[in-house]
């Protein structure tokens, strides 16, 4: 086995064949997987597998209610916010947000910080005029534009941000102030990685597959006064008011993904809650950024230090021809899915909630050893 990598971390994580750093989906903690394994065949009650939970059953309704209650305590969600469990990934929300929140207006403000805010804007243009209030495209998405310089058009129905840019590796440190204009955030890649002051937001949404389970479920948290004024053409499944009225059971919900999210919420509580997770995520990413900073230019992070993501650490090798070798050698060392997003290139290490600290440690040691060998 090559130096660094999984071999040294195995004593603490003896059941792992390796660590996966994919940005697309986060690893699930062993404790959660063990529980699923135990309940796989008959955890759904009355002989039903948790994979085949009827959404109409009391067992599922209790599970979903417990998951929501657990999420509410985790995030200290105020009473006047509703939690919705929806389908279609965060991409469906790119359409659902304008359809539900334009409230008869024709313009919405968007802040462009990279690939995912770009995707949200492109979809919104199907429904309204997009006012790009600020963009860091000119500097290669190396920062979040200073909120003091944002130019929001008068009458913008809401202001949309991506709190963490999964492809470019930058992250807001705190929610920007948008005055009376409701702030909407795509939190798909950093939801539940730390505490949140929800009162600063009109709506947030996040796909479950990175930090709270598996694909199929999207969590939406929305302030009640924004509900019930969707555009008449809004498909019912995307209508927040309809979903809220039916407690997210308007049609068959992704039952297994909701069950799993409930287990993840419990697991997050057991870790000490979101303040503990924030500290853990800060430590994991700091370990990798420190290796980059101390590599005498062998590795380079293009994002300015102030805005570096704590969940998607994106970097390059100064000698780019070594990148394929780096990724292959990492794989041989049990460190998987490190290639950067196709639009950004380079290397990307995603350190979602389910990534243990040993994973970041294994990668850091591998990076040090690789640099020493190839400098
Ligand atoms: N927003 C962000 C920030 C993302 O990282 C992703 C997926 N990587 C999406 C939206 C799209 O999510 P989905 O594929 O679940 O629609």
Question: What features would you highlight for this structure?
Answer:
seven-stranded mixed beta sheet; 2 domains; 375 residues; alpha/beta; three-stranded antiparallel beta sheet; 14 strands; single chain; binds 4'-deoxy-4'-aminopyridoxal-5'-phosphate; Aspartate Aminotransferase, domain 2; Aspartate Aminotransferase, domain 1
Q: What fold name stands as the CATH topology of the largest domain?
A: Aspartate Aminotransferase, domain 2
Give a quick account of the main beta sheet: strands, pairing sense, barrel closure. 7 strands, mixed
Percent strand: 15-25%
The count of β-strands is 14
The chain-level mean pLDDT equals: 95
Number of domains: 2
Helix vs. strand class: alpha/beta
What is the CATH C-level name of the largest domain?
Alpha Beta
Give the neighbour order of strands across the main sheet: 2-10-9-8-5-3-4
Q: Which distinct ligands sit in these coordinates?
A: 4'-deoxy-4'-aminopyridoxal-5'-phosphate
Segments where pLDDT lies below 50 for 5+ residues? Answer: 8-14
What is the topological layout?
Layout: H1 6-9, E1 19-20, H2 30-39, H3 58-75, E2 81-86, H4 89-101, E3 107-112, H5 115-124, E4 129-135, E5 159-162, E6 164-165, E7 170-171, E8 183-186, E9 203-207, E10 218-223, H6 240-245, H7 255-271, H8 274-293, E11 299-300, E12 312-317, H9 323-332, E13 335-336, E14 347-350, H10 357-374
Parallel strand pairs: 1-13, 3-4, 3-5, 5-8, 8-9
Antiparallel strand pairs: 2-10, 6-7, 9-10, 11-12, 12-14
Helix pairs in contact: 2-7, 3-7, 4-5, 8-10
4'-deoxy-4'-aminopyridoxal-5'-phosphate binds at residues 24, 89-91, 116, 162, 166, 186, 188-189, 207.
């Amino acid at each position: 086995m090559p130096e660094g990598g999984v071999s040294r971390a195995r004593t603490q994580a003896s059941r792992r064949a390796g660590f996966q750093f994919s940005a697309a989906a986060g690893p699930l903690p062993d404790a959660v997987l063990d529980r699923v394994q135990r309940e796989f065949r008959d955890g759904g009650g009355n002989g039903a597998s948790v994979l085949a939970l009827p959404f109409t059953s009391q067992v599922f309704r209790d599970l979903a209610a417990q998951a929501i209650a657990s999420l509410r305590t985790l995030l200290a969600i105020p009473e006047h916010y509703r939690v919705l469990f929806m389908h279609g990934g965060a991409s469906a929300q790119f359409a659902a947000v304008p359809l539900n929140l334009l409230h008869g207006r024709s313009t919405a403000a968007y802040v462009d910080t990279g690939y995912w805010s770009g995707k949200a804007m492109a979809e919104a243009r199907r429904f309204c005029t997009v006012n790009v209030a600020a963009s860091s495209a000119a500097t290669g998405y190396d920062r979040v534009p200073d909120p003091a310089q944002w130019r929001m058009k008068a009458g913008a129905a809401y202001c949309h941000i991506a709190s963490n840019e999964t492809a470019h590796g930058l992250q807001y440190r705190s929610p920007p102030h948008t005055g009376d204009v409701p702030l909407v955030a795509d939190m798909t890649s950093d939801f539940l990685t730390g505490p949140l002051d929800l009162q600063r937001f009109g709506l947030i949404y996040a796909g479950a597959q990175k930090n709270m389970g598996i694909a199929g479920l999207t969590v939406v948290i929305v302030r009640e006064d924004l509900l019930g004024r969707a555009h008449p053409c809004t498909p019912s499944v995307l209508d927040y008011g309809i979903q809220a009225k039916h407690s997210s059971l308007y049609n068959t919900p992704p039952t297994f993904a909701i069950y799993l999210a409930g287990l993840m919420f419990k697991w997050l509580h057991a870790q000490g809650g979101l303040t503990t997770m924030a500290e853990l995520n800060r430590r994991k990413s700091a370990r990798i950024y420190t290796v980059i900073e101390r590599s005498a230019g062998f590795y380079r992070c293009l994002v300015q230090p102030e805005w570096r993501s704590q969940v998607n650490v994106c970097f390059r090798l100064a000698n780019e021809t070594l990148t394929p070798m780096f990724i292959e050698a990492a794989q041989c060392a049990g460190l998987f899915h490190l290639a950067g997003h196709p639009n950004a290139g380079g290397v990307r290490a995603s350190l979602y909630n389910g990534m243990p600290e040993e994973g970041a440690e294994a990668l850091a040691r591998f990076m040090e050893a690789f640099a020493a060998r190839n400098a």
